[in-house]
Amino acid sequence: MKIQGSVALVTGANRGLGSAFARALLAAGAAKVYAAARDPSTITLEGVVPVRLDVTRPDQIEALARELGDVTLLINNAGIGGSGPVLDPMVIDRLHQQFETNAIGPLRMVQAFAPTMATQSSSAVINVISALSWATLPGITGSYSASKAAAWALSNAMRQELKAQGTEVLSLHVAFMDTDMARGVPGPKSSPDEIARLAIAALEAGKSELLADEVTRSVHAGLTAEPPMYLGMLG
Ligand SMILES: NC(=O)c1ccc[n+]([C@@H]2O[C@H](COP(=O)([O-])OP(=O)(O)OC[C@H]3O[C@@H](n4cnc5c(N)ncnc54)[C@H](OP(=O)(O)O)[C@@H]3O)[C@@H](O)[C@H]2O)c1
After folding, report:
1. What is the CATH number of the domain that holds 32?
2. Does the pTM exceed 0.90?
């Protein structure tokens, strides 16, 4: 799909990768960018249309879908991290929040906006997933990885079901980026602006999946290594 002339809706657009997507979309010629945030007053980027959206609130999702009848590109970016061992009983609450935000929220968004996108001559969804959908940092990312693995499976299912109406789906897998979410993680991180540009280029090239950096490509290759990376090589 071409970004020029598109009408995009980006969730979690007030900071991190979401704000990078909003900037990249404007630079690539989007006709309109709806920048969604739980608190729209935190949207400071000029040229976008701020809208209120908590992706765990079905009432807000449905109201927004009724209000915005012109969306051609949905970017499911909003997400939460949070870490700790899965054997800690506290993980259950975190797991519910991560599934609601990282997997069920994006699905609800697609359910709500699919009818609008079906009426457009060209439409697409970008689901921001993670290299950690395919591997777990032991004792650290078990619940987050589970939510992103679910998001990946749902992204694949959405692609199959939206094909009939001509809506494309791009899964974006990326390793650590230089945003608040990975603030405490040492080592090299990708620039969110660069990742947003790569994702937009991949969408324009008709790709269904983007492995956006070398670490992500190596984790993906590790799925079929012997032993597979997810059996513990990241530990
Ligand atoms: N950073 C990384 O290393 C990394 C790596 C791989 C994938 N990702 C994924 O990339 C995406 C963007 O993350 P980021 O790195 O930009 O993180 P970030 O800087 O922490 O930003 C997260 C964004 O999501 C929003 N958000 C969280 N819960 C929400 C909810 N219930 N409803 C609406 N918005 C919500 C936040 O809004 P508030 O300001 O209101 O909290 C914020 O705008 C996420 O899906 C994340 O899982 C990140």
Report:
1. 3.40.50.720
2. yes
